[in-house]
């Protein structure tokens, strides 16, 4: 028996966009309940859907999507290796990066950066969250090292990669910096919650665009992907 699974990049993109919008709206409603109405629990649902919290539904969703990106990148890397094309290592490194990001989403590795940085960085203002001081130069190094790779990509894929990256970084680093500065001055309030909501929306939607880009690339350049399961051949 053969099982065929067909995936439409457009339909996946629309579905994931709806999920991201739904999570963002539910989270925002929870923050309004907390800071305006004065009900910060609502049977635990506020924390369960708060995009600014860890170990909840949005965290689980983001981790799965990052892992999905890693698997798609690994699939593309495998196809590039078979076809003996250029930039195989770049695809593999991207797969490894997204695998790390998926783990970090639930293990909160980057949020423990302050313990590693110690007192080497003055964590005030826009650098209130110490890991940003490391994230900015790493992002610049990554972009510079991947410029030739981006230029080599098909025009549509290159544009989608750039858009996805810009959206994701504007949230992960840009909005994070504003959130840190606001927390330092005003502490936690509705405005901080709104900045965090924008940050997380940008991160989640950036990944949606990236998933769409990867699926479109596979559809247009790999045409068909076959999976098979077989017993290992033992040496005689």
Automatic annotation (TrEMBL):
Give the domain of life: Bacteria
Q: Which residues cross the membrane?
A: 12-37, 57-77, 89-109, 129-147, 159-179, 191-215
Per UniProt, the keywords (alphabetical) are: Membrane, Transmembrane, Transmembrane helix
Does the keyword Membrane belong to this entry? yes
This chain's protein is named: Uncharacterized protein
**Species, as recorded:** Tolypothrix tenuis PCC 7101
Taxonomic lineage of this organism?
Bacteria, Bacillati, Cyanobacteriota, Cyanophyceae, Nostocales
């Amino acid at each position: 028996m053969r099982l065929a699974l067909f995936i439409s990049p457009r339909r996946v993109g629309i579905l994931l966009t709806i999920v991201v919008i739904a999570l963002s709206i539910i989270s925002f409603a929870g923050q309004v309940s907390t800071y305006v109405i004065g009900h910060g629990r609502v049977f635990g649902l506020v924390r369960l859907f708060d995009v600014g919290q860890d170990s909840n539904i949005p965290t689980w969703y983001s981790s799965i999507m990052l892992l999905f990106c890693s698997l798609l990148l690994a699939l593309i890397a495998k196809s590039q290796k078979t076809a003996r094309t250029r930039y195989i290592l770049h695809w593999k490194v991207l797969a490894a990066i997204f695998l790390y990001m998926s783990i970090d989403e639930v293990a909160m590795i980057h949020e423990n950066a302050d313990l590693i940085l110690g007192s080497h960085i003055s964590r005030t203002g826009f650098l209130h969250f110490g890991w940003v001081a490391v994230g900015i130069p790493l992002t610049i190094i990554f972009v510079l090292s991947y410029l030739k790779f981006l230029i080599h990509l098909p025009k549509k894929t290159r544009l989608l990669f750039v858009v996805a990256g810009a959206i994701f970084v504007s949230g992960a680093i840009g909005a994070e910096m504003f959130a840190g500065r606001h927390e330092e001055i005003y502490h936690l309030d509705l405005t901080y919650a709104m900045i965090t909501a924008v940050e997380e929306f940008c991160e989640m939607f950036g990944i949606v665009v990236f998933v769409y880009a990867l699926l479109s690339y596979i559809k247009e350049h790999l045409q068909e992907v076959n999976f098979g399961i077989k017993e290992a051949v033992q040496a005689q």
